[in-house]
Write a structure and sequence with these properties.
- α1 (8-56) packs antiparallel against α2 (63-81), α4 (146-163) packs parallel to α12 (344-357) and α10 (283-310) runs antiparallel to α11.
- A five-stranded antiparallel sheet has the order 5-4-3-7-6, with no helix packed on it. A two-stranded antiparallel ribbon has the order 1-2.
- By secondary structure, it is mostly helical.
- The protein has helices at 8-56, 63-81, 137-141, 146-163, 167-172, 174-205, 215-224, 231-240, 244-269, 283-310, 319-339, 344-357, 359-362, 365-396, 404-430, 439-447, 453-460, 466-488, 490-497, 516-533, 540-543, 549-555, 558-562, 610-617; strands at 103-108, 111-116, 580-584, 587-591, 597-600, 623-626, 629-632.
- The chain is globular and about 90 Å long.
- The protein has 24 helices and seven strands.
- Keywords: Antiport, Cell membrane, Endosome, Ion transport, Membrane, Sodium, Sodium transport, Transmembrane, Transmembrane helix, Transport.
- One of its GO terms (molecular function) is sodium:proton antiporter activity.
- One of its GO terms (cellular component) is recycling endosome membrane.
- Belongs to the monovalent cation:proton antiporter 1 (CPA1) transporter (TC 2.A.36) family.
């Protein structure tokens, strides 16, 4: 039997359909290119304007705030100035189903067409007058999938925060930073949640609430707005050279509390009590959510550290391949954590910290420079893209819910929650700190609690319900206010609080001031972990007992033996003072505050007077001795800094 041949009319219709399809595909490609061009021009305009601001020394507006302004202007133009209705015709058919299907298969004249769900145009009972003109096509095009922010834009921002961490001041204030980031974020979350629940209850009584809003929704809102992002303030701090301890406290808190806020929000969403009502209080469900918080955070932490440790690069002769491998391993940490059910933000953060501590020392000099510059560039572009998109979203997002009572309550709750985080914890921390967190530092930290990229990304990830839409709209306003008002007033606030700038502050650092746990870890890391995982640090033959000599020679890399005479301790900034002596075997290595490394043999001390040697070692009380390695910490480094970095006491 011969196969049936298509009629000439059917062939003509098929050819015409192919032409129309190709034309639509070409038009869609042009439209997508125009949409991306809009964001490229926004970033270009932001960069040029910021160059002008820096040239004129204007500090009242950071590039992120400027990017938001440009995004707002473009959003106004797209919303009210350009109208591009959808192509084709729309047919409305009524069909009663129990739930919204993700895909619909339609049979039209024997041809099957598959349609996917984009969004809900109206709720049940509401009439859509004109579906074809209901939405500007360009507005729909410039609306990105929220997963784009989590999988593409957030990883370089979070990784750069860990990779560029100022570890000396971070570890000097590690206890305070952990208290603000963990305990403070949880306290802020619950205080904001309770205050917002009271606001929502009041809205119900006065008839201002037009949808469901549960206590878990209020806690979720408290979690997402507790993530601080003081990028504007930190940029001004860096430019003005504000006191390092204040910078470390603010930066360290913002880095870690982003991770805490992500895990905390996930745990709140996972709260599922037994029974029909999923929003009632139940002790077991609460404990389960708390256990999930600990499990997700610890699992993400372990995964990030493990990935950072195993990122060995043996491609030093091929710097491009080495940099590419480092970049891909770093980014894959985020995706691996998300695929395993953990939190990619926590994993990639600690991966960055670990790689800066270990893997960075194994890279070639060219790759070290390339990775720093690469992630700094990606961080800059991703952050400004997100802030531009924030401004754009204020006019392009179609389901905004602005409620004046909720907005006012949210602003009050955010500032009260921030105050409950900073002031009580600072009081408790000062009870155990030798160098207190001064009141002007506390006021500055309170003022610098800006909200930014992480808060926006968490809010936009789910806008399906009435409560989430109201939270997203309010979150945008909170971000705008904190970036423009608080960020713009940073210089004035520094002047008002009389915080020193453009100078190296005097401080007195002693052994007893620093965290004993960190000192134990540092000695273990320097003597054992660094020689195994990197090519720096003393060889294991000098730190392990003599009976472990064969094992030490196997585990120590050949490069470590080659560098034995010129010990390269790239982690000397972890030490809590500006001067450190490392001595093992017949070699003494000095790392001074300027980062200069000097070494000498057995005759090093012979050329020094006993008076000089006493000053070199300061006091015996401050000497930490382990097998093979001697760490000498000066009692006091409050003396004026010498102009010649090579001169030392």
């Amino acid at each position: 039997m011969l196969p049936a041949t298509a009629s000439p009319q059917e062939e003509e219709d098929s050819a015409m359909e192919n032409i129309v399809t190709e034309k639509k595909a070409e038009e869609s490609h042009r439209q997508d290119s125009a949409d991306l061009l809009i964001f490229i021009l926004l970033l270009t305009l932001t960069i040029l304007t910021i160059w002008l601001f820096k040239h004129r020394r204007f500090r009242f507006l950071h590039e992120t705030g400027l990017a938001m302004i440009y995004g707002l202007l473009v959003g106004v133009v797209l919303r009210y100035g350009i109208h591009m209705p959808r192509d084709g015709t729309s047919v409305m058919l009524n069909c009663h189903v129990n739930a919204s299907p993700a895909t619909v298969l339609v049979n039209v004249s024997g041809k099957f067409y598959e349609y996917t769900l984009k969004r809900v145009l109206s709720s049940s009972g509401n009439k859509v007058d004109d579906v074809s003109d209901n939405e500007n096509e360009m507005l729909r095009k410039v609306t990105f999938d929220p997963e784009v922010f989590f999988n593409i834009l957030l990883p370089p921002i979070i990784f750069h925060a860990g990779y560029s961490l100022k570890r000396r001041h971070f570890f000097r204030n590690m206890g305070s930073i952990l208290a603000y980031a963990f305990l403070g974020t949880v306290v802020s979350c619950f205080i904001i949640g309770l205050l917002m629940y009271g606001t929502v209850t009041l809205m119900k009584h006065v008839g201002q609430l037009h949808g469901e809003f549960f206590f878990t929704d209020c806690l979720f809102f408290g979690a997402i707005v507790s993530a601080t992002d003081p990028v504007t303030v930190l940029a001004i701090f860096h430019e003005l050279q504000v006191e390092p301890d204040l910078y470390a406290l603010l930066f360290g808190e913002s880095v870690l509390n982003d991770a805490v806020a992500v895990v905390l929000s996930s745990s709140i969403v996972a709260y599922q009590p037994t029974g029909d009502n999923s929003h009632t209080f139940e002790g077991m469900a609460l404990l389960k959510s708390f256990g999930m918080f600990l499990g997700i955070f610890s699992g993400s932490f372990a995964l990030g550290v493990a990935t950072g440790i195993v990122t060995f690069t043996k491609l030093r002769d091929f710097q491009l391949l080495e940099t590419a491998l480092f970049f891909l391993m770093s980014w894959s940490t985020f995706l691996l954590a998300e695929a395993c059910g953990f939190t990619g933000v926590v994993a990639v953060l600690f991966c960055g910290i670990t790689q800066a501590h270990y893997t960075y020392n194994n890279l070639s000099r060219e790759s070290q420079d390339r990775t720093k510059q690469l992630f700094e560039l990606l961080n800059f572009l991703a952050e400004n893209f997100i802030f531009s998109y924030m401004g754009l979203t204020l006019f392009t997002f179609r389901n905004h819910v602005f409620n004046p009572m909720f907005i006012v309550g949210a602003f009050l709750a955010v500032f009260i929650g921030r105050a409950a985080n900073i002031y009580p914890l600072s009081f408790l921390l000062n009870l155990g700190r030798r160098h207190k967190i001064r009141s002007n530092f506390q006021h500055m930290m309170m003022f610098a609690g800006l909200r930014g990229a992480m808060t926006f990304a968490l809010a936009i990830r789910d806008t399906a319900t009435y409560a989430r839409q109201m939270m997203f709209s309010t979150t945008l306003l909170i971000v705008f206010f904190t970036v423009w008002i608080c960020g713009g007033g940073t210089t004035q606030m520094l002047s008002c609080q009389r915080i020193r700038i453009a100078e190296v502050p005097e401080r007195s650092s002693t052994k007893h001031e620093s965290a004993w746990l960190f000192r134990i870890w540092y000695n273990f890391d320097h003597n054992y972990l660094k020689p195994i995982l990197t090519h720096s640090g003393p060889p294991l033959t000098a730190t392990l007992p003599p009976c472990c000599g064969p094992l030490a020679r196997i585990l120590t890399s050949p490069q470590a033996f080659e560098n034995e005479g010129q010990l390269k301790d790239d982690d000397s900034d972890l030490i809590l003072t500006d001067d450190i002596n490392l001595a093992y075997g017949d070699i003494t290595v000095n790392t001074d505050g300027s980062g200069v490394h000097t070494s000498s043999g057995a005759g090093f001390a012979s050329g020094m007077s006993s008076e000089d040697l006493d000053r070199e070692l300061t006091c015996g009380d401050n000497e930490v001795v382990m097998r093979g390695t001697c760490l000498v910490f000066p009692m006091d480094d409050s003396e004026p800094t010498l102009k010649d970095p090579h001169m030392r006491f």
